[in-house]
Here is the input.
Amino acid sequence: MKTKTDSCIVVLVTFKDIAEARVITQQLLKKRLVACCNLISGVESSFWWEGKIQRKREALVILKTKKSKFDSVMREVKTRHSYQVPEILALPVLKGNPSYLQWIQEVVI
Here is the structure.
């Protein structure tokens, strides 16, 4: 089975809480922009914001999608996200289970 590993990406997004993450990830799934969303609550983040170091509890979401869908995913997240500057980072998939990578290709349209 031939797969397109270079066209699969993992996208990381943090949210103010798990409720916001659920609402936005459901939209991404309904629109078939992502194949899978892993939601992790209770992540502690430390970061620079407004000239000082901040510390917050957040929810981290790990999205699996196609590289070609990144702009659409980012646009959808930014439209609904409560942060002024949301973290939306895409990471390449270098290798993976060929069947899983094929599944991503099939379900993301």
Q: What stands out?
A: The chain has three helices and four strands. The beta strands are 8-15, 36-49, 52-66, 88-92. The longest strand covers residues 52-66. The helical segments are 18-30, 70-80, 98-107.
